[in-house]
Amino acid sequence: MTQPVLLRQSERTLLRAIVVGAGEAGLALARDLHRVSSFGLDPVGFLDDDPAKQGRRYGGRQVLGTLADLEQVLEWKQVDVVVVAIPSMPSHEVKQLGLRAAGQGVTVLHLPPFLSALQRQIAGTDMRALQVGPLIGRSEMHVVSRHARDAIAGKRVLVTGAGGSIGSELCRQVHGFGPAELIMLDHDESNLHRTQLELWGEALLDTENTVVADIRDTERLFQLFRDYRPQIVFHAAALKHLPVLERHPCEGVKSNVRGTENLVEAAVAHDVERFVLISTDKAANPASVLGATKRLAELVLDAHQPTRTVLTAVRFGNVLGSRGSLLHVVRDQLASGSPVTVTHPDVSRFFMTIEEAVGLVLEAVRMSDGSATYVLDMGEPVRIVDLVRNFATLLNIREVDFKYTGLRPGEKLTEELFGAGEEALPTEHPRISMTRPPCTVPGFRAGLRELYDAAAHNRSDEVFRHLRHLVPEYSPAPGLVRAGSPYPDDY
């Protein structure tokens, strides 16, 4: 895709969608998508395997081919999203369709069976991307371009944290881009089992591409890099739950900082071409251990320059739809009739979908040519209470009771995308900005060694002191109470 096409994508208010299935469900869905622009999708045609329907028009939209024609139609119509409107389609067929579409840089959404809709499970799950606009005040962005395929195809790719929400989606899209090899690394074998099952329809965990390892184990990582010789590394493994890291800061350092440096050292030593760190918006002017350790991980990348390995970071907002994310918790609370717990009436966050998050990562691989941190334009921060009310409206719930628990230690009222001294610089993608890291503090390497030693001996007070020295903009927010909401902080 050339630059002018990217610009046209950003200027459109609606994403171009193909509806799979020209039956009653598909026709009704296309009609509703056309009528309700807030869904953010513009149906441009259908795919259907019924020979009698080929070339026919329904509501002004033509059946453009069968499922075998998927790739050609996606390219021909410059499609952004495929919506499967065959509720009875087996899940393994939907997954295969998703892999084929991912090879073209296109997202697949699945309309769940009618029973699921009756049970009010449609919102926030399978069709979450259709309804993200009403929730967060903007349409979902189709971030990844078809050129991202060129950066992945034929490469040996390693994904850490492959069993997590972001890691598994990365694996799914990378797999669709035709890598020479996809190496999936996680310390939890049950997570790997789930990811392998999603990708291949079976999960015996007996293949070379599933690797159980801990990123804290330096010798194990060097062995893996010697054996697999990855060319691209996506580093999604991390400890990320804010309240846990406030209570256990040493563990945050061991995983988020030392684990990242272990991987960077292995990548540089084994001539990895590109290394991408998954960071968080909490790294901008951090107020928590999570934010400080992820900011420090970004600085670790810069401290290893110059090197032939391109070291890049991407910052995420809170990711809607990831396991244990806000929507899942809110849905359960609304379904039970319980008050929805929120830390503060004015707390707000940047939100993105899993597809946007992974698209940002893949575009960063394609665009990066040196040490930088990439950030997606996510619009304005959204108040949690507004998002909950919008979500309740989608579930046909008119009244919502809130219980305010107070800000947790390390929690801000609102997040930022860029920290002190950082400038948002344009990139070739109109909705992605980047920033160059500022200079590290004098004695940074020695300070890191002291931090690692304090963490290894579980001396929390020293860890806090070293974090404040190494990340001068880190200003711990005390929070109002220790008890907090049940939401994990996703990115």
TrEMBL record:
It comes from the Bacteria. CDD domains: UDP_invert_4-6DH_SDR_e (cd05237). It holds the Pfam family CoA_binding_3. Residues 157-435 form the Polysaccharide biosynthesis protein CapD-like domain. Gene3D superfamilies: NAD(P)-binding Rossmann-like Domain. InterPro entries: NAD(P)-bd_dom_sf, Polysac_CapD-like, Polysaccharide_Synthase-Rel. Belongs to the polysaccharide synthase family. This is FlaA1/EpsC-like NDP-sugar epimerase. It comes from Kribbella pratensis.
